[in-house]
Design brief:
Rossmann fold; 5-stranded parallel β-sheet; two-stranded antiparallel ribbon; globular; acid phosphatase activity; storage protein; signal
Length: about 250
């Protein structure tokens, strides 16, 4: 009998604990049982970061405030810090040679373009290449703080870095100046896109091809960091890849 009473008491406690833990989840839904916009947009962002949602053109209009709150708030930096910390922990385990490199994307990986996207709906507006090129020409993007911390740590470990960006070769001078102005002042190579060589070819093809050239010239890609899955997929992607958050746009 004592065993039975103890069992029933344990079940009741577990049920009450379960109710207590689930209560905050119920607060996130409306009174008619539909998920709130906040919950739906959080699920949308998860789908984006996991690469389950692909080929999307804009942030859903209903999620503009959610995305703005995310990228302007503490969560974005915390998520970035978690990724960058893991990159550093991994890098410390490596036996580095003179031909080992980390590959980094530039926009939303090293440089932050929130000043631009805040004026264009945080991704709700369709991407305008001309408007973005005008923004790049200003050279006013600032460093993503957690990536800059990571960069400095990799430099202290003696690791060489290569910056591989979809910015065009015509934007080299302003990109170099912007990178150096915000603290990314040393690199092994800065690779920009030659539109004549990649007309009609995807970003995935461009980045994989340039990584192949790196390895064929004798480098070994020991790490690869980017905010888009096209930075991290395809051939010659490196020994390990790291995805930084970016819910504002998709590059396929």
């Amino acid at each position: 009998m004592k065993v039975l009473v103890l069992f029933v008491a344990t079940v009741l406690v577990a049920c009450h604990a379960s109710d207590y833990q689930m209560y905050p989840l119920r607060l996130k839904t409306s009174h008619v049982g539909q998920y709130s916009t906040e919950v739906l947009c959080a699920s949308w962002r998860l789908g984006v970061e996991a690469n389950n949602l692909i080929k999307w053109k804009t942030v859903p209009e209903a999620c503009q405030e959610f995305v703005a709150d995310y990228v302007l708030g503490n969560q974005y930096r915390s998520d970035s810090k978690t990724v960058c910390r893991e990159v550093y922990f991994y890098a410390k385990t490596l036996n580095i040679t003179d031909k080992d490199v980390f590959v980094f994307d530039v926009d939303e990986t090293l440089l932050c373009n929130l000043q631009y996207y805040s004026k264009h709906g945080f991704g709700v507006e369709r991407f305008n290449a001309t408007a973005f090129a005008n923004w790049v020409a200003e050279g006013e993007a600032y460093a993503l703080p957690e990536t800059l911390v990571l960069y400095d740590k990799l430099m202290s470990l003696g690791i060489k870095v290569v910056f591989l960006t979809e910015r065009l070769v015509s934007q080299r001078a302003i990109t170099v100046a912007n990178l150096k102005d915000v603290g990314f002042d040393k690199w092994e190579k800065l690779i920009l896109k030659d539109p004549a060589a990649y007309t009609g070819k995807s970003t995935l093809t461009y980045k994989a091809t340039e990584r192949r050239k790196l390895e064929e010239s004798g480098y070994r890609i020991i790490g690869n960091v980017g905010d888009q899955w096209t930075d991290l997929m395809g051939s010659y992607r490196g020994l390990r890849t790291f995805k930084l958050p970016n819910p504002m746009y998709y590059i396929g």
